[in-house]
Amino acid sequence: MAHATQLSTVIVDDHPAVRAGVAQWLSAGDPPIRVAASGDDVRIAWTGEGATADVVILDLHLGGPAPVMGELRKLTEAGRRVVVYSMRADDDIALQCLELGALSYLTKAEGAEHILEATVTAAEGRAYTPPSLAGALAGDRSANRPTLSARETEVLVEWFQSESKDFVGQRLGISPRTVNTHLEHIRVKYAMSGREAPTKAALLARAIQDGLVRLDDL
User: Which of 52, 100, 110, 169 could form a Cys-Cys staple with 114, CB 3.0–4.6 A?
Assistant: First the structure.
């Protein structure tokens, strides 16, 4: 997809070889993606050119055993578009990251094609599902499925397939305000079942887990 200006990223990873490799993959993209800043501390995403980069590519473990979930939350709450790139092929961690607002979760076993696609998609504010994440979403480990009405399910599926609530409204013959009301009701139902879904990516994860949509439909 063509962009009016070159996309930029900030890479946060505590391994210099990983930062260099990701930067090389991004620069070789078509079109190339610029690395505005990179470093081994999340502060690089808040300072200088890193503060205005379109996408943050974030390693979960920066010099310690504990994942930096708090830092991920701060980034997403500030409106940053985050792609998590981690050594951990852990379904539960992947879903936690989506729930916190990450737009994708990639393992470092996945190569250039997926990091490029995830970055471009995240820059557009949309979620990207690589093979490893598809496995996490397919495994339904929750017995608490909220009961959605037929209309709520219809709105939800259309929203996943559309770029805006306006377009969903046009497709279904309802106002964007009504679309938003349905989506808020769905979020409340998930929250009441103990499975909060505050972001579109998290709601997509829940819907796939519950069999409301399939990856092939997206």
Answer: 110
Got the DSSP string for 131-166? Answer: HHHHHHHH-----------HHHHHHHHHHHT-S-HH
Element (H, E) at 105: strand 104-107
Residue 143 and residue 125: Cα distance in Å, rounded? 30
Domain range list for the chain? 8-138, 150-217
Instruction: Please give the Cα distance from 88 to 105 (Å, whole number).
Output: 10
Q: Quote the CA–CA distance of 61 and 87 in Å, as a whole number.
A: 8
CB atoms near residue 213 (< 10 Å):
17
pLDDT number for residue 4: 54
Three-state secondary structure call for residue 26: helix
- For the domain spanning 8-138, the CATH number is 3.40.50.2300
How far is Cα of residue 110 from the mean position of the Cα atoms in its chain? 16
pLDDT digits (tens, 9 = 90+) for 65-79: 778 899 998 998 888
pTM, full prediction: 0.67
Q: What are phi and psi of 177, to 5 degrees?
A: -65, -40
Q: Which H helix or E strand runs over 81?
A: strand 81-86
Quick count: other Cβ atoms within 10 Å of Cβ 154? Answer: 15
